[in-house]
Structure formats: structure tokens, C-alpha cells
Amino acid sequence: MAEAPKGWDRNQMAARAAQELEDGMYVNLGIGIPTLVANYVGDKDITLQSENGMLGMGPFPFEGEEDPDLINAGKQTITELNRTAYFDSATSFGMIRGGKIAAAILGAMEVAENGDLANWMIPGKLVKGMGGAMDLVAGVGRVIVVMDHTNKAGESKVLRECTLPLTGKGVVDRIITNLGVLDVVPGGLRIVECADGVTEEELRASTEATIVG
Q1: Which residues are catalytic?
Q2: Does the predicted TM-score (pTM) go above 0.70?
């Protein structure tokens, strides 16, 4: 019998991120794994915001029920709720810059032990634009990053210092990866939780950043 894979898959990471949300919160979901969080909100009274002008996103539609006019910031089809509101980008970014959004759940290419975030470009590669991430990390109350712990070569993406252009300095509060959950604290990162089947030693060995405690 094959051994069960260690760690969380994309959906389990999204479900773990959804546990961070509390009733009454307004939350922005970034592109990639964070968009899956909408499927795991459950009965919580959470209002999801998309920076392209939507407040009150529902989960992803079932196959055959997609509406091409309803998309999130990542151009994926989504659903609306009976309380959904629509508005222009100026109003959307007014909410973000005005501190009205409690939390952002974002993807990342790299995160540093001091909370620096790199998630908008790789030098030399074509980029469609920086999107809303820079405004989000500067304007929301809490930034949670959800990403794979290592790249395809097995190298840590949780670093002492980011090597890619920064989205924001010292902005990340919590990191959720396929190997576990880490908090940014004075002096480095603190392990909050290990993913299914992952030991603390394995988590430490896969992390370049300083782990304290």
C-alpha cells in the first residue's frame, strides 16, 4: 500500500487559511491558491472583496453554470450572493487604501523572515501588471500568505532575505504552506502548526529562514 503523501494539497491549504477568518470580516483573496478559500468559508459571515470591483463573492460555479461576466481579479469565473455589490476600481481601491479590508490572503513567490513579500514579478519574465497587491499589503489589517514551501527544485521559498523585487517590506503576518503554518515574530519565524504527516524537524529543514523558539 502506497504511503500517504506528506503535507497539505492546495485545497487543504485553502481550507486551513479559511480557519483564519472570523464573522464580520471583509477579506480580499489574491490570485492562485487563495482564490480557493472562497470554497471553504462555510457558514461564517465573511464578505469577500475582489479588487476588480466586487464585494460579496460566492464560491466557484459548478461546471455548466459559469457566467463569463462574473470574474475575480484572476479572471476566474465566480458566483454572486444575494448581497453582492458592484463598483468601479476607484471605489474598490478606496476601500483597500482606506483600511476597510480586515485581511488579505495572498500567494507569494518568496517570503522573508522579517515579513518581506515578493509576489508580483520575476525579472526578465513578461508581467501583465503588478495588480493590487502593493495596495493590499499597505492597506489591510492582516496579511496571510498561502504558497508552496519550496520551488520545483526543492529550494526553500521561505527565506532569510527575498531575492525578487518586493511587493512590500515587513508586511506578512502569517505564512501557510503545504508543510505548515509559521508566524512572523521578532527575530524570525515561529512554527504554529505542522501539516499532516510533517514533523517539526522536516519543516525546519525545508526552511532557509530563521526559526525561533
Answers
A1: 51
A2: yes
